[in-house]
Amino acid sequence: MKIPIKKNIFKIFLVILLSLNSIKQTVNAQCPMCKAAVESSMKDKSNSKGKGLNRGILYLLAMPYLLAGVTGAGFYYRYKKRKRIIEE
Q: Which residue has the higher pLDDT, 53 or 61?
């Protein structure tokens, strides 16, 4: 019995996803330091550290969406180009 390639790719993706999910690391180690830095900045009324921290968070939040959008657009335009070539 031959298994289609799409099912194999899905199974490989699922195994990789589950294996990466099983590797857990503590990532909240810097939160108290950031909180202390922002609180001290708020007391000084300069608030430049708080603004920088917020910009960094927004930057980190936007990057995956930007990467997915660019990748999706690349696949879309490649698909349209192939379709146009096949129709000619």
A: 61
Distance CA 64, CA 69 (A): 8
On whether the CB atoms of residues 67 and 59 are closer than 8 A, the answer is no
What's the longest Cα–Cα distance across the chain?
Answer: 71
Torsion of CA 26, 19, 12, 83, to 10 degrees: -10
Left, alpha or beta for 23 (phi > 0: left; psi -120 to 50: alpha)?
A: beta
Q: Tell me, what's the pLDDT at 45? A: 67
Sign of CA dihedral 31, 32, 37, 42: positive
Look at 22 and 12; give whichever has higher pLDDT.
Answer: 12
